[in-house]
Design goal:
- InterPro entries: DUF7089.
- By secondary structure, this protein is of the alpha+beta class.
- The protein has 13 helices and six strands.
- Helix 1 packs parallel to helix 4, helix 4 packs across helix 9 and helix 6 packs parallel to helix 13.
Length: about 260
């Protein structure tokens, strides 16, 4: 299922600077969540496994089954919404997983995704949104009018924005040190901006659902894109400092305003 991925010199330097010793693996099959018997084979590549679990009280009663399984004591890695490259801190050292779905992706962009995962893994933050929101995930669900699946998608997006606030300064600073990775980061942002420019109108006319719009807008934070209303309020020092509490307040105010329109 897994094999060690050879890293070019600039990625190796990113690893040394942000997550020394991190393991980067190619996955021969695609996945959203690794089942326990597969996840445990990561032990062949790392020093030890440290399965995470979370209190049941952190989840609404109608939380998606996959999220409930992830929160349980069953050792699982990954969740839907993680993208083609993900990372886990349930291993020592951390592990970056390059999924099979990335086959055929432009080399420079794929290398940036690996670099992004290495930087995130070195931040000392939770590997997923549930660890970020904690018991406030129930409050997030209550603050919206969304279905359990859509609440999940919104939570993924909000955490992506939070991570972007902590990583984009690093990416922006790579112009001289890692120009190839910097160019991939910059190019992705330029490609994303036109999609964001008309996003508010698409949401207002029901051409794009709110969770999907959030996913798109929040991905723009790490690229320094201009975000449409109401997502621009997430690109703030207050969110970077306050985290989940700020996100819940933002969601409550946003959905209250949507209800008035």
């Amino acid at each position: 299922m897994f094999s060690n991925r050879d890293l070019p010199a600039d990625l190796d330097a990113v690893r040394a600077a942000h997550t020394p010793g991190a393991v980067v693996l190619d996955c021969e099959r695609d996945f959203e969540t690794l089942p326990p018997d597969t996840a445990e084979t990561l032990g062949l590549f790392v020093d030890r496994l440290e399965p995470a679990s979370f209190p049941e009280s952190w989840l609404p009663d109608d939380a998606p089954e996959l999220l409930a399984r992830y929160a349980s004591e069953t050792f699982t890695v990954g969740l839907p919404g993680d993208g083609g490259v993900t990372w886990t801190a349930q291993t020592t050292p951390p592990t970056v997983l390059v999924k099979a779905r990335t086959t055929g992706s432009p080399e420079e962009f794929l290398d940036f995704l690996v670099a992004e995962a290495l930087v995130e893994a070195g931040l000392g933050v939770p590997e997923g949104f549930l660890g970020f929101f904690g018991e406030q995930y129930v409050e997030l669900a209550a603050a919206t009018t969304l279905s359990p699946a859509d609440t999940y998608q919104l939570a993924v997006a909000l955490y992506d924005a939070y991570l972007g606030l902590h990583t984009r300064e690093t990416f922006a600073g790579w112009a001289d040190e890692h120009p190839r990775l910097h160019e991939a980061w910059h190019d992705a942002g330029e490609r994303l901006q036109p999609r964001l420019d008309g996003l508010a109108r698409e949401v207002a006319t029901d051409r794009t659902a709110f969770p999907a719009a959030a996913e798109l807008a929040c991905s723009g934070v790490k690229h320094g894109c201009d975000l449409p209303t109401p997502f621009g309020a997430l690109d703030t020092a207050a969110y970077r400092e306050s985290g989940a509490e700020y996100a819940v307040v933002w969601a409550r105010k946003t959905f209250e305003k949507l209800a008035e329109e």
